[in-house]
Amino acid sequence: MLGITQDITLRKEHDYKLEKASKAKSEFLSSMSHELRTPLNAIIGFGQLMLLDDNDQLSSEQRKNTELILQGGYHLLELINDVLDLAGIESGKVELTLEAISVKKLITETITLVQPIIDKYNADIDYTCCCNQIDDRTIYADYLRTKQVLLNLLSNAAKYNNNSTIHINCNTENNDMLKIIVTDTGRGISAKNQLRLFKPFSRLGAENSNIEGTGIGLVVCKELIEKMNGRIGVE
Question: pTM to 2 decimals?
Answer without folding.
Answer: 0.68
